[in-house]
């Protein structure tokens, strides 16, 4: 009986210790790929719809448990986003390719549906770091621009997604993000040229 009591006490202590560890804050790193598009863009009075462009992302995140079901999960990520616009005018084929580098700061609430599976939702602020736009006419590059004067320097967005934990440290995340503001800093494309798309990343926490 005494041995049974000792074994039971040890198991209880181990269980409580594991629960305490699950509630510990964690910091992690993540990296992955995204697929973004830029909505619509007005060129000489004609709207052109963007096609999806692949990019990448990498950064750090915090996992701050609020309870067994909820966590506060801020992140700081460098994201390469882009858009491609194609159109034809009077027999001339035109193409505009844009690459944008942002520091994304999503402030997310993580909802743990099960110990492995979770959902995330929250706002995001994006800060423009670099930019390159190339223009092509009939397949030949005609112009290149890296200026940021015509682009919004910061953008508010929203993020939703889901995640799966392969282990307490290794996780996979799928996200959808949508900007609430135009990437262009003008009066024509304010409600049109908004970045949106999907991201898939692998994270490791310490």
Could you write a compact summary of the structure shown?
The protein is mainly beta.
Structural account:
By secondary structure, this protein is mostly beta strands. The chain has a single domain (26-205), classed as Porin, CATH 2.40.160.20. 10% of the residues lie in helices and 65% in strands. The chain contains one helix and eleven strands, in the order αβββββββββββ. The strands form two sheets. An eight-stranded antiparallel barrel has the order 1-4-5-6-7-9-10-11. Strand 6 (92-112) and strand 7 form a beta hairpin. The longest helix is centred in the N-terminal third of the chain and has 21 residues, at 2-22. The two termini are 40 Å apart.
List the helices and strands and how they pair.
Layout: H1 2-22, E1 26-37, E2 40-43, E3 46-49, E4 53-65, E5 70-89, E6 92-112, E7 117-137, E8 140-145, E9 154-165, E10 170-179, E11 196-205
Question: What attributes does this structure have?
Answer:
206 residues, mainly beta, Porin, two-stranded antiparallel sheet
Structural class estimated from helices and strands: mainly beta
Number of helices: 1
Largest sheet: 8 strands, antiparallel, barrel
Distance between the termini: 40 Å
How many beta-strand segments? 11
């Amino acid at each position: 009986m005494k041995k049974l009591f000792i074994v039971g006490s040890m198991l209880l202590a181990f269980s409580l210790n594991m629960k305490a560890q699950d509630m510990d804050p964690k910091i992690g790193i993540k990296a992955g790929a995204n697929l973004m598009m830029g909505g619509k863009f007005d060129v000489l009075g004609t709207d052109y719809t963007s096609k999806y462009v692949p990019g990448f992302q990498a950064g750090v995140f915090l996992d701050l448990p609020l309870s067994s079901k909820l966590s506060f999960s801020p992140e700081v990520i460098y994201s390469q986003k882009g858009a491609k616009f194609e159109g034809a005018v009077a027999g001339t084929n035109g193409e505009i390719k844009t690459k944008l580098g942002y520091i994304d700061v999503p402030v997310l609430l993580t909802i743990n549906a099960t110990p492995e599976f979770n959902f995330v939702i929250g706002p995001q602020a994006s800060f423009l770091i670099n930019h390159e736009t190339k223009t092509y006419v009939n397949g030949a590059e005609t112009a290149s621009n890296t200026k940021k004067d015509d682009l919004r320097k910061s953008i508010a967005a929203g993020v939703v997604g889901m995640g799966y934990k392969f282990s307490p440290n290794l996780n996979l995340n799928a996200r959808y993000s949508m900007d609430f503001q135009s990437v262009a800093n003008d009066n024509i494309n304010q409600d049109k040229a908004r970045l949106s798309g999907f991201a898939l990343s692998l994270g490791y926490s310490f």
